[in-house]
Amino acid sequence: MLRYVLVRVLQFLLTAWIASIIVFALMQVLPGNAAQVALGTNATPEAVARLEAEYGLDRPLVVQYLDWIGGVVIGDFGRSYVTEADITPVISDSIQVTLIVVIASMALALLIAVPLGTAAAVFHNRAAGVAISGASQVGIAIPNFLAAIILVMIFSLGLGWFPSSGWRAPIEGIGEFLERLVLPVTALALVQAAILTRYVRSAVLEVMREDFLRTARAKGLTAGRALVKHGLRNAAIPVVTVAGVQLATLLIGAVVIEQVFVLPGMGSELVRAVSNRDLLTVQGIVMVLVVLVLLLNLIVDLLYSVLDPRVRRAA
Questions:
Q1: Dist. CA 233–CA 181, nearest whole Å
Q2: Which residues cross the membrane (predicted)?
C-alpha cells in the first residue's frame, strides 16, 4: 500500500515538473516583448534593455526557467512586469475565492446527484426514475453561464433574495458571505449535479445486476439494505473517477461564473492578466491551475485504494 502511494506521489511530482516546462515554454513562444509591453510602444530601446536587465529577461531561457520554478516551489511567483506588484498575494487571495466556490459547488452537486441518481436506478422502470433521468438530461444541456443568468434574473432581479454580484470574505460577515455565495455555487452545482446523476444512475444499475447483490438478498437482506451495505461502495468507484474529472472541469468553468458574478477569483485574475499581457502573472496562474488538476487526479487515485480492496491487494 505504501509503495502504491509513493508511486502515485512520484508520478504527480514528475508530471507537475513536465507541465511547468510546457507552461514556461508556451509563454516564451508568444509574440511580443514583455518589457516592451510593460513600457509601452513609445519606449526607447535603452529603456527596454534596462527593464529586461532588471527582471532578468536578458538571461538564457534555462536560467530564467530555473529561477522561476525555484521561486514557485517556495511560493514566490515573482513580480509583475506590468504592475510591478508581487504576484504571490494576487494568486493566494484569488485561489481562496475559487476554491471556496468550486468545493462548495461540488459538495452541493454530490448532495443532489447521489440520492437522485440512486433513486433513478432503483425506480428506472417507473415514472419517478424516468422523470429524474429526463430532468438530468435537461440539466446537462444548460451551460453554466446560462444557468447563472437565469438564477440572477429570478432570485436577484425578480425576487431580490440575493445580490447579483460581488464578494465578501467570511471575516467581513458570514451572512453577507453566504448571500453572495449562494447563486454562483448553485449555478455551478446544478449543471454538475445533472451530469453526476447520470453516472450515479448507471453505476448503481450495473451494481444491482451483480451476483453478490443477489446473494445478499438471498441471505435475508432487503433490496434497499443490500444496496446500501454492499452496492453503493462498489458503485462509488466509477463515480469518484467522474467526480474528479468534473471537479477539474469546475475549476475551468469557474472562470465564466466569476465573470458573471464579478468574483475576485483566479478566473477573473487570469482574464485581467491576459488582457494586460501580464505574462508572468498568466504563467503563475496557469501553473497553479495545472497543479490543482494534477492534485485532484492524485486524490482520486488514492481514493481508489480506500474504496476498492483489489487495488490495495495489487499494490
A1: 31
A2: 12-30, 99-123, 135-161, 181-200, 235-262, 282-304
- Phi, psi of 79, deg, nearest 5: -120, 135
Residues 6+ apart with CB under 8 A from 266: 91, 94, 95, 97, 98, 254, 255, 258, 285, 288, 289
DSSP-H helix ranges across the chain: 2-29, 34-39, 45-55, 61-73, 87-122, 127-141, 144-151, 174-208, 211-218, 223-226, 232-261, 266-275, 279-307, 309-314
Q: How far is CA 211 from the centre of its chain?
A: 37
Q: According to CATH, what is the number of the domain 88-275?
A: 1.10.3720.10
Cβ–Cβ under 8 Å, residues 192 and 109: yes
Instruction: Give this prediction's pTM.
Output: 0.75
pLDDT of residue 56: 65
Query: Which run of H or E residues covers position 231?
Result: none
Rg of the chain over CA atoms, in angstroms?
24
Residue 65 has pLDDT above 70, yes or no: yes
For the chain, give every domain's residue range.
Answer: 88-275
Distance CA(291)–CA(17), nearest Å, equals 10
Longest dimension (CA), the chain: 86
Residue 311: pLDDT over 60: no
* Euclidean distance between CA atoms 108 and 139, whole angstroms: 15
Q: Indicate the pLDDT class of residue 182, thresholds 50, 70 and 90.
A: confident
Rounded mean pLDDT, 294-301: 79
Mean pLDDT to the nearest integer, 259-276: 79
C-alpha cell of residue 229: 451495505
Q: Buried (b) or exposed (e) across 118-148, using 16+ Cβ within 10 A?
A: bbbbbebeeeebeebbeebeebeeeebeebb
* pLDDT value at residue 221: 57
**HSE value, Cβ hemisphere, 13 Å, CA-based, for 90:** 23
Percent of the chain with pLDDT over 90: 0
